[in-house]
Amino acid sequence: MNKLISTVKTAFLLLLALSFTAAAKTPLHNELSFYLPAENYNQAIPTPESVLGYQVGEWHVRHDQLVAYYKALAAASDRVEVKTIGYSHSNESCCMSLLLIQIVLVR
To answer: What is the mean pLDDT of each run of 10 residues along the chain (107 residues)?
Structure first.
């Protein structure tokens, strides 16, 4: 009975590992077209992939990576500001990101 349970556990873990491997190899670029339509984006603004090293959704983003991306946006654009408003108990910076909208008044 123990051998049967061990075999079932092994088979389950193998199938689980294979499903994660297959999911990791799935291209996300086609799936992101819903969120990022084919538009002419400003090439000077860094994409998350260019800063993080992977496409959004392929891996979880750590706090330090997210802060680094917002700082890269702030460095590349005058419409983004990142302000440190405090620090956590583990000395991680708590940031506030201001995304500014340019309003053009036409008379």
So the answer is: 61 59 52 71 86 86 89 91 90 86 69
Q: Give the other-Cβ count within 10 Å of 70's Cβ.
A: 19
Residue 98 has φ and ψ, to the nearest 5°, of -105, 120
- How far is it, in rounded angstroms, from Cα 53 to Cα 72? 13
CA–CA separation, 55 and 29 (whole Å) = 8
The whole-angstrom separation of Cα 67 and Cα 52 is: 11
pLDDT for the residue numbered 99: 84
**β-bridge mates for residue 98, sequence order:** 81
pTM above 0.90, yes or no: no
Q: Are 88 and 94 in contact (CB under 8 A)?
A: yes
- Beta strands, E only, 12-92: 80-87
- What are φ and ψ of residue 65, in 5° steps? -70, -40
Question: How far is Cα of residue 7 from the mean position of the Cα atoms in its chain?
Answer: 37
